[in-house]
Amino acid sequence: MKTITGKVVYVDLTGGFWGIISKDGKNYRPTNLPHHLKENGKNVSLKIKEVKEDFSIYMWGIPIEIL
Question: How confident is the model at residue 48 (pLDDT cuts 50, 70, 90)?
Answer without folding.
Answer: very high
